[in-house]
Amino acid sequence: MTLINRQLNLQKRPQGLIKDGDLVLEESDVRSLQDGEFLIKTQYLSLAPVMKFYMLDGAGIEDPLPIGSTIRGRGVGVVIDSKHKLYKPGDTVQGKFGWQEYVISKGEKYDMMYHVHTDGLSPSTALGVLGITGYTSYFGLYSIGNLKAGDQVLVSAAAGGVGCALGQLASIKEASAVGLTSTDEKCRVLVEKLGYRAAINYKTEHVSSRLEELFPNGIDVYFDNVGGEILDTALDHLNKYARVVMCGRISTYTDSLDEQSYHLKNWHKLGVARGSMTAFFIYDFEPHFEEARDQMIEWIKSGKLTYHEDILDGLESMPEALNRLYQGKNIGKQLVKI
Predict the structure, then answer these.
(1) Residue stretches of the chain with pLDDT short of 50
(2) Measured at the alpha carbon of residue 67, what is the angle toward residues 110 and 124, in degrees to the nearest 5?
């Protein structure tokens, strides 16, 4: 029986949120495998803000996505047929799947295929806490942020995929974190479930006043997921030798990466604090991914680390799921179950 693949393909480059007509859902037969290929049935697809820019200009990482092409993105799934010696039917893998229900791969370097080992946890965790998102939290805080016991940590977009692990990762190393987020409900989740000692609703509270209250001696590590005005405000509250981790800047994303909607005013406060602001590319840490995965599995099983996933159903939900990131609706890692 011929399998039918459904794919979400780019029909028009989006302006603002993804709208009807920007993408088209198309079907095609799954072709027969050639030598060296394997076929994956997608289980979950991951969402990240950068995916919108894959549709626009490649985000400075990839070539611009041609009109008519399948949207790029990472997924996890099960190998159901194979003519590849390293990938067998029944293997669970993650990699660059694209927004589709079936994937044919040769396991080449560009596809970034990894066998998934989650030690009994849901395969969805391979896209979240035990995947690139979790590794970003782990290495961003511990390696780039150089976290030390007693450090006072501020995290923006704290209820997002990366942010939701950081409060607990700080506590594990005997540091203390405060999270910035957009609703009172998210503030409650951060404090009651995700290890933050306090949370700030940046939409209803005066952020600078709250930072002065919560960080009387200044911020030692600021894990920045948003950029813009929030970053500027945090720079005004740094402790001596503070470290600013540059992870994301969703608040300044426009429809062109060449444009900036906000220019920093307090950048000179880094000099006053004798601090540092460091960007990183998570794949530079690829040789150490297994170390992070194994350590976080241990913490999850011992109860030191919990994770939160925000899951929608069905391939047709992918545009809504991506928009949720820009609307601040997700709590935890945004995924779609296929």
Answers:
(1) none
(2) 45
